[in-house]
Design goal:
By secondary structure, the chain is α/β, with parallel strands linked by helices. It is about 45% helix and about 20% strand. The chain has one domain: Alpha-Beta Barrel (TIM Barrel), CATH 3.20.20. The radius of gyration is 18 Å and the shape is globular. It binds guanosine-5'-monophosphate (2 copies), manganese (II) ion and sodium ion. This is cyclic-guanylate-specific phosphodiesterase.
Amino acid sequence: LAIEQSLHSALANGEFQLVYQPQLSLSTNTIVGSEALLRWYHPVMGSIPPDTFIPIAEQAGLIIPIGEWVLRTACKQAKKWQKLGYPAMRIAVNLSTRQFEQTNLASMTADILQETGLDPHYLELEITESMLMRNVEHAIECMEEIKDMGIDLAIDDFGTGYSSLSYLKRFPIDRLKIDRAFVSDIPQNGDDTAIVLAIIAMAHSLGLKVIAEGVETKSQMEYLADKCCDELQGFYFSPPLLPEEFTKLLKKQN
Ligand code: G
Ligand code: G
Ligand code: MN
Ligand code: NA
């Protein structure tokens, strides 16, 4: 309850911040995107993890204004990096269930893109399998509306939900994000390597890109590169970074 109460004023008090985790191409070894991740620093309670406050914000309906702030801040930052002259990168933003089911998601997103001047092709929205499976036909309509705007769609935490393969074919998505649970024990664990290989093969045969999440070691990276996984994200390359730190990394790369 204390958390819910504090959440009501957190936006107005400027207590939220976004950090950005780089996404690396395994073919070019360059940063091709980033995922925006929300952080909350409460003046008294300190840092509160998103796993704790996002479900509360979701339940209280506060995720709608918070999610809009996240989207606007991330698009603004992406545009800022482009204006600074860095090679254009994708920016990925997580959506919650309530946001995805919000009727004005497309128009709200269109307004933010216009306001920030970000080309929609550089925006990617991350949704989870469970969000899609609640009402598949409606989800497909929503996804198509977003795709028609030129925005990319990714399925987050792929492999942990219950999406059926027959639907996967019908979802207008661009990318699968392999959940880190399958990545943490590769290449030693035979079951996990089998799952990762199957996801990569299936994604590619459906014309989708694949990104591995939670890559923490060199041997995981080498294995994924060898198996033609497209991209990676994880502590091995970089944790989520404050915008200034991310800019330093971009500078180093150029
Ligand atoms: O950033 P990690 O640090 O701890 O994120 C934990 C969880 O919170 C992840 O499942 C992530 O998808 C989710 N998350 C982080 N930022 C956001 C956000 O801006 N919106 C939503 N809906 N979820 C987020
Ligand atoms: O659920 P989602 O994929 O949106 O959340 C990303 C989460 O994964 C964030 O909490 C982020 O801090 C975390 N994360 C990013 N890289 C790594 C990693 O290499 N290892 C682990 N354990 N967590 C990671
Ligand atoms: Mn995510
Ligand atoms: Na994930």
